[in-house]
Amino acid sequence: MELCKWRQNPPYFTSKGEMDLDNEIAFKFGDSWSEFSIRNSIPTPIAREAMRHFCSRGELTKAIEWEQD
Questions:
Q1: In this structure, is residue 11 part of a structural domain?
Q2: What long-range pairs does 51-60 form, CB within 8 A, spacing at least 24?
Q3: Domain annotation covers residue 3
Q4: In the predicted model, is pLDDT for residue 2 greater than 80?
Q5: Which of 4, 13, 27, 50 is 20 to 30 A from 65 via CA?
Q6: Furthest-apart CA pair in the chain: how many Å?
């Protein structure tokens, strides 16, 4: 999961998952493919809760460890 402010201004934050691997995961969204590191992957239910938390409170959840990019 990654947070970029709406104007694309730093700081940027990325979730830190449980696996410290640099392998990539690829997924297709619409007509585009995207990749991200496995080390940044988090379980879907936690990602959804983080999105709900951000949308309702406007802040990052403390349930996820975040890295500043």
A1: no
A2: 51/1, 54/3, 60/3, 60/13
A3: no
A4: no
A5: 27
A6: 33
Q: Label residue 45 exposed, middle or buried (CB < 10 Å: 0-12, 13-18, 19+).
A: exposed
Single-letter amino acid code for the residue at 17: G
How much is the pTM?
0.73
Task: State the Cα–Cα distance between residues 45 and 52, nearest whole angstrom.
Answer: 11
Beta strands in 1-69 (DSSP E): 2-3, 13-16, 24-29, 32-37, 65-68
Token pair for 23: 């392998």
3 state DSSP class of 28: strand
Residue 2 in domain: no
Contacts of 60 (CB under 8 A, 6+ apart): 3, 13, 50, 53, 54, 66
